[in-house]
Amino acid sequence: MICLFFPLFDEMFCLQTIQGKFEDFKRSVMAKADRFSEVDNFAKRLVAEGHTDTVIIKEQQDILRCLSFVIGFVL
After folding, report:
1. Which of 21, 33, 47, 65 minimizes the number of CB atoms within 10 Å of its CB?
2. Are residues 42 and 75 in the same domain?
């Protein structure tokens, strides 16, 4: 009967480990929120000035904004 609980224990342990790593990642990103805002503002200036890589810049901005949404800060 005990063997039935080992897979559940392993899954719970893995979930707790992943949640802990995400929380560490989240704290790290939140500590750098000002830097993310600076990068986003710089990207906005580049696009406004008609940079030749505007499409790529906007794609990267979208990625940055998605990350900020997941972490919980607003750009």
Report:
1. 21
2. yes
Whether 47 and 11 map to the same domain: the answer is no
State which residues form the domain around 11: 1-31
* C-alpha pair distances (Å), 32 with each of 3, 15, 25, 61, 66: 45, 26, 11, 16, 16
Nearest to 74 by CA among 28, 37, 27: 37
Give the total number of structural domains in the chain.
Answer: 2
d(CA 16, CA 10): 10
Residue 9 to residue 3: CA distance in whole angstroms: 10
- What is this structure's pTM? 0.60
The 10s digit of each residue's pLDDT in 17-70 is 889 998 898 888 788 888 888 989 999 999 999 999 999 999 999 998 887 777
